[in-house]
Amino acid sequence: MNEDTRPQPTAAEDEAVIALATTMLEAARSGDADTLLSLIDQGAPVNLRDGGGNSSLMLAAYHGHATLVRELAARGGDVDLTNDRGQSPLAGVAFKGTADVARELLEAGADPDLGTPSAAETAQYFEREEITALIAQARRTEG
């Protein structure tokens, strides 16, 4: 079977996939760990991305859900997956100023120098002293 002869999804199947993606991305935004982690544990993609390239982990991080970020990373969520604008989850967190989420991302191995602007640059620009200190500590630990 090749691409031309493979059965194509029905409209109902397409709608079901869209509904699943919508549920997962909304759960990430709202911090609904029970829903999101259950779906991932059943085989849904942990690095699902929205139309702007924001992963579930990025959305959870940006909206301040530290425990969910930790659980997504533990399930293979890519802590360095940038969105379509080249922004990393850690840079979004540095913009928002949520140090507990920054700590989780750094502990999971997030690169503070990745993206445009990087998390390190963002933390300095917005004078996020606690996040800047966490980045410095992570650099000392890995070096």
TrEMBL record:
Keyword Hydrolase in the entry? The reply is no
Species of origin reads Brachybacterium sacelli
Placement of ANK repeats on the sequence: 52-84, 85-117
The protein here is known as Ankyrin repeat protein
Which keywords, in A-to-Z order, does the entry hold?
Answer: ANK repeat, Repeat
Q: Which InterPro entries match?
A: Ankyrin_rpt (IPR002110), Ankyrin_rpt-contain_sf (IPR036770)
Highest taxon in the source lineage = Bacteria
* A Pfam match: Ank_2
